[in-house]
From TrEMBL:
GO terms for biological process: tRNA queuosine(34) biosynthetic process. The keyword Iron-sulfur applies. InterPro entries: 7-CO-7-deazaguanine_synth-like, Aldolase_TIM, rSAM_sf. This is 7-carboxy-7-deazaguanine synthase.
Amino acid sequence: MLRLHEMFASLQGEGPHTGRPAFFIRLAGCVPPLCPWCDTKGAWDEGTEVSVSDLAAAAKESGLGFVVITGGEPLRQWEEGLWELDRVLSKLGFAVQYETSGKVPVPEDIRGEVILSPKYLEGSWHVDRTSVARARHLKFVASQGTLGLIDAFVADHALDKDRVWLMPLGMTRDEQVENMPLVWDHCVKMGYRMASRLHILAFDTKKGI
């Protein structure tokens, strides 16, 4: 059994699959230290128990071929049954993307694509180094105050810049738009990729999108 916060059909609003129709499975629970700016704090709770078969059935019923498993921190439930969902969805032919902070090591045998969003908290990056190596892409929420930290992280891990995505900081549409030119210019300068947070541009502060 897995602990679920919510599931819904939408568009992926972030990273390399921006704009792609997706069925979201948001698992409950996170890993400290918790991010004070988190826009899904409701997922920090214990959620509701749901079986792997019910989650797979819901994904099939959505009619979409792309499943995003997010949180909270979804990989904290790997041993509790996420490993099984990973295999079931793969066998059913779904493309699967995991959104993780990297605080929990990414399993070596994971089948879905891993998108890692490292978090800088309390003066350091809270990320497992093996998770960085196993992620397909890394995405960072960027602002004037974090660009130097991101550059140092990329250099420290010798990352291919084609794997690095920057998104402008913004809990609201106006804040995101304000930070876009800064992030745009930095991506041009450094060779990173850029994505918006499309759901915020479209719906501002509305939840469940």
